[in-house]
Amino acid sequence: MPCFTKxxxxxxxxxLLSLVVSxxxxxxxxxxxxxxxxxxKTEQSAKTINLKYAHFMPASSxxxxxxxxxxxxxxxxxxxxKLNISIFPAQTLGKAPAGYDNAKxxxxxxxxxxxxxxxxxxxxxxxxxxxxxxxxxxxGSCAFQKLYDSGALDKEYxxxxxxxxxxxxxxxxxxxxxxxxxxxxxxxxxxRRPTAVIGKLLKELGAEPIGMPAPRIYxxxxxxxxxGFMLPWEAVAGFRAYEVAKHYTEFGFYSLAFxxxxxxxxxxxxPADLKKAIDENxxxxxxxIAGEGxxxxxxxxxxxxxxxxxxxxxDPAEKPKWxxxxxxxxxxxxxxxxxxxxxxxxxxxxxxxxxxxxxxxLNS
Length: 364
Known about the structure:
It is a single chain. This protein is an alpha/beta fold. 51% of the residues lie in helices and 17% in strands. It has a 6-stranded mixed sheet with strand order 7-6-8-5-9-11, with helices on both faces. The longest helix is centred in the N-terminal third of the chain and has 45 residues, at 2-46. The termini are far apart.
């Protein structure tokens, strides 16, 4: 027993020392863990988020070089470098008709596409395509964005987060071999139509509408699948369609509707400051930038088109017939919407009101 007591006296200080060392290690471990957690949180908050932006225009197009890249640069700057946008041109993330669904389903984070590529999905939006509403892309884009901002189109886009909408300038007719200046010239020709709405107009004019996205026009003209196409001047240059067409008919048949939109969950998962960077680059500001770009694109393309083909005007005696066909196509489309319980005529009148407002605002 005395031996045990003596040993206990020797062991006690060692136990105490061990306890002190253990507590110190635990404290250091806790501090280290807290520091590491703080570092992780700091790293996460500073981490760059990469977003994919898909579209169907060629990499060499002005849209890719300016509209999309400028938007991406503006968002990156507004986010303080926390958002990085990678651009995927020329259908590299999916075919043009799948653009909206690719954004909806997260195949891409952002898509720029044509509403009419998915038929009957955006019936009220496509009213903006009807002939005779406006003369240039900037006015059309302004009116279209106002319509979207009014809430009239909310149901059509509820599956994604819309950045902005816009139009291109007036679309014209290009043909491979035959000059078209009368309705008799157009009768029976197989003409590429961009959307079903424009198809109605072509039928009224006596042509045979063939649906296809713009990237397929060149090959289809080469192979004789179509006799001609409907495109604005800038797209004739952008898709090099001037290489396969000799004649053009200047009429202003239509203006196409476009949307730049974002996967809803991707947007909603962003922190507030990065949502703000996206919001600052949405709406009317970029609708007008797109419209201005298309108007400039039309002006820049005309010299190229005139070098390789001939631009024709419709015979003055024939023009009222073409205009009447446009009115019939408009009435038929609005009647179809009204019959389905949609506010076709109301939305059409609303668009005309916004066009008048935009003309006054943009000319002031």
